Each structure stands twice: as structure tokens, then as C-alpha cells.
Amino acid sequence: MKQLARIAGLATVAALFLVACGEDSTAAPGDSSASNKAAEYASLEEAGACVPSRYGETVYVIGEEAFYFCGGKKWTVIDEGDNGSSSVGGSSSENGGQYGTSSQQSSEGGKSTEGGLNVSSSSSSSSSSSSSSSSSSISSSSSSSSSSSSSLESQETEALCGNVVYNPTTHLCDIRDTTLYKWARIGSQTWMAENLNYEYKVNDSTYRHSCYENEPDSCAKYGRLYNLKTAKAACPAGWHLPSLDEVDTLWWGLESELGPGAELKADSGWHADGNGTNSSGFSALPSGYAGLYSPRVYTYSGAGRRALFWTDTYGSSLYIGLSYDSNSISFERESSNYLLSVRCIKDAE
């Protein structure tokens, strides 16, 4: 019965579309099978990209129990409503597109995406008898583009970082070395959710950074460690080393009964089960640090147990600290030549 309802719903949408456009409701020879039954897919991803060659195509996504219409480089959901009108991806309606059918109606609001097509009709009548339905095909009012469309163009949540496809709503791309970093929105701020791992290169020995114990695997796991001078210069464009005021804003926005450190620490990777809840999404890992005990000799310590992050505080080498044996946040000072982790914060918009 569900399948019959799907087919009846799709046929009604087709009829409404053609009546609105002033077209005859009889499909061209050979088109009846395509118009009366949409192709079914388990997910929208399985259906593939909405490209110009597929404009006018309707598919049914089983996992969402919804029809999608291809137009304007977007798959637009077609929801059933109770107002007797048909709108496919309508930008003029706040609740998105709706259409009515004689077989079933739903009061759920529709979802629409930019670039869809609008069709509306207050009523429609069939010229055939009630025992048979006329066959019709849905045509796109947009002409096919001569240029090819890629899947990246049809998905606003996809972009390229070098040759890698990524989602800008969850990651940022450092175009200097095409490294991807997760980010997290915490209160009014946007923070990197991973430690910076940029190999800052400049012909000046006072800019220093390294992997923990000079092991490349440590950089891959924890990011790099930087002295304060390098930390202030190393964040990608549009991001910066946080000030003490910005760290205060982060801190006061954390409300866990366990302590603010618990919200910042990752939920795995800390010594002696000293993990946090990571409810903030900050995902702090115990990256350790390096102390400078002679002009050129660094001693590494704290991996698995501590995470220390530089702040850009005028006239002071201040950092914030997290530890496996505490759920608090410490504010401490150390030599600006120590090598600590860096978390960049996004510039205010």
C-alpha cells in the first residue's frame, strides 16, 4: 500500500506541474513509466549528484520516506501538505514546498533548498475517467546547461582542500599546506578542535617548533609544539592565537558540574583514565611540552598527562593547562622559549 501511495503522490505532482505550465497532461510516448514511478534509493547520497542532465528527475529516498526533485543543481525534498498546492523547492514559502494528493495528506512542513523550481496550482481536474489515471511526465523549466556540473557544485557542504574533498561546516582548510582541521563552535566563539600542526618556516632561529621528542608520529597525533614567538605567527589566515580575554570567555561558558577541564578534555587518550567528557567539542589531547634547559637543548615531558596552550597576552608568557588528574583549568606563566601546543580561534566576523 505504501508503494501505491508513493506512485499516486508522484502522479499528482506531475499533473499539477503541467496544469500550471499550461501543458497537456498526456505524456509523450514512452514516458509513462518514468513519470508514474520514481527510482528508489536507500539514501540521497546513493542517488548521486543533481546535474543538468538529470533536471526534472524525481527519486524516492527510502531511508527518509521522501521524494526529491532535481533542479537548479539541487535535490529538493517534496513534502505532502494540506493546502492543495504544489511547490517544489520553493524559496517563497518559509516552510518549504508542499503538495496535496487525493490519496493522502500530511501536515508536516517541507524542507527546501536554494535553487529549486516553483510550481503552484489551486485546483486540477482529470479529463480521463475516475477508474484510470492519465500518464504525465515532469519537465524542468530550466534548460540544460552546456557546461558539465560536478558533485561539488551540487553540494554546498563540500569543498576542495588541495585534492581532498572536505566539509567546511565541520573542518577548515589551511591552504598553506592543505592540512584539514576540525573546528567547534563553543558559545559565541569558533575554536580549532585540533592542535595546530603547521611547520612554520622562516630564516630566523628564534622561531622554534618541533614534534614531541622530534617524532613525526607525535605531530600527526598531537600537532606541533611552538615557542611563544612562533605561536603568535603560525595560525592560518582568519584565525589567531587567543588572548586571555578570549580564554576567559571560553572558560565562563563551560558549566559542567565536573569542572571546565572535563568539558575541554577529549574522552580518550589521557593517562589513568583521566579523560574528560568533551561536551564542548574542544577535544584537548595530552600533547605534553618541551622545556629549554640550555640554549639549544629541549627536554620533553607530559605526553599522555598534560596539555599546555599558549595565549597571546601582552607582556606575559601566559598559558592555560589541563591535566589528567584534575578537571580544572590552570593559568600559569613560563619561559616564552618553552614549546607548547597551539589552538587557534577564529577572527571575529
Give the overall shape.
elongated
Number of helical segments?
A: 8
Helix fraction, binned, reads 10-25%
**Class based on secondary structure composition and strand pairing:** alpha+beta
Word description of this protein:
- The chain is an alpha+beta fold.
- It has eight helices and 19 strands.
- The protein has a five-stranded mixed sheet. The protein has a three-stranded antiparallel sheet with strand order 8-9-10. Strands 16-17-18 form a three-stranded antiparallel sheet, with no helix packed on it.
- β16 and β17 form a beta hairpin.
Provide the fold topology.
Elements: H1 2-21, H2 32-36, E1 39-41, H3 44-47, E2 58-61, E3 66-71, E4 74-80, E5 98-99, H4 151-154, E6 159-161, E7 164-166, E8 171-174, E9 179-186, E10 189-192, E11 209-210, H5 216-222, E12 225-226, H6 228-234, E13 239-240, H7 244-252, H8 260-264, E14 287-294, E15 297-303, E16 306-310, E17 318-323, E18 330-333, E19 345-346
Parallel strand pairs: 1-2, 4-5
Antiparallel strand pairs: 2-3, 3-4, 6-7, 8-9, 9-10, 11-12, 13-19, 14-15, 16-17, 17-18
Which key features would you list for this structure?
single chain, about 350 residues, alpha+beta, 5-stranded mixed β-sheet, 19 strands
Summary of the model, kept short:
By secondary structure, this protein is of the alpha+beta class.
